[in-house]
Amino acid sequence: MTTDLFTEQRPDVIQLAAGACWLPGFALPAMDTLWPYLQQHLASNPPQRMMTPMGYFMSVQTSSLGSLGWVSDAQGYGYSATNPVTGEPWAPLPDMILQLAAAAANKAGYADFVPDSCLVNVYAPGSKMGLHQDKDEQDFSQPIVSVSLGLPATFLFGGKTRSDKPVKIPLQHGDVVVWGGPSRRFYHGVNTIKPGMHPLTGNRRINLTLRRAG
Ligand code: MD6
Ligand code: FE
Q1: Residue nearest to ligand 1 atom 12, measured at CA
Q2: How are the residues of the chain apportioned to helix, strand and coil, as percentages rounded to the nearest 5?
Q3: CB–CB of 88/82 below 8 Å?
Q4: Where are the domains of the chain?
Q5: What separation in angstroms does the CA of 119 have from each of 11, 65, 109?
């Protein structure tokens, strides 16, 4: 079988679970402004490998935008108004990203999503993220919006318990995943990123995770 990668059409919305959907290519129209913005952000806010409470360094490098940034250290995971590396507040979330997040959430059935936190994850080949739940936020009525750029990744979307077998979602540059409501605390993760070269981001995958944390 041959697949023509250039003409292959993917649907706009793919339901993953109750309250969760995959929006293939949803962020592509925003890329012309999103990618230059992120490049600049990453240049002036170098992403860092955070330590987990177990004392291991994560393979992913992270930085944040918004009034609360996601941080981890030997004391635990959580949100912080300041960048632990610089002691300074995180840069505010630009309108362009707020609009993209709200539009994606809306398409998934969540009206009026206003995130206050945007985690910027940088994955080099070999980086991965183990299955986990997002449960450090105050208000679980708000969804999570995840935007992918650059190298492809297999996103794992599981269920309520760690032992629920995850579905494997082949995320491409510009794809968005939204989960909330009944699936807000579902386990998820990212398989090891394979080596590759993307025309925009080079040899990395960038993921934005937008949440209402406070
Ligand atoms: C991703 N990240 O980078 C997904 N969740 O594609 C996450 O799911 C995540 O990086 C909670 C805290 C940090 C994270
Ligand atoms: Fe997560």
Answers
A1: 134
A2: 15, 35, 50
A3: yes
A4: 3-45+56-208
A5: 27, 7, 22
Q: Is the CB of 70 under 6 A from ligand 1?
A: yes
Residue 209 alpha carbon to ligand 1 centre in Å: 6
pTM: 0.94
What architecture is the 3-45+56-208 domain classified under in CATH?
Sandwich (2.60)
Give the gyration radius of the chain's Cα atoms. Answer: 16
| Residue 133 Cα to ligand 2 middle (Å) | 6
Kindly tell me the sign of the dihedral angle through the C-alpha atoms of 77, 82, 87, 90.
positive
Q: Does ligand 1 come within 6 angstroms of the Cβ of 188?
A: yes
CA atoms of 36 and 149, how far apart (whole Å): 12
Ligand 1 centroid to Cα of residue 145, in Å, is: 10
Are the CB atoms for 71 and 50 separated by under 8 Å? Answer: yes
- From first to last of the 214 residues of the chain, give the pLDDT tens digit: 555 666 678 999 999 999 999 999 999 999 999 999 999 999 989 999 999 888 999 999 999 999 999 999 888 889 999 999 899 999 999 999 999 999 999 999 999 999 999 999 999 999 999 999 999 998 899 999 999 999 999 999 999 999 999 999 999 999 999 999 999 999 999 999 999 999 999 999 999 999 999 9
Which ligand is nearest the CA of 64, by number?
Answer: 1
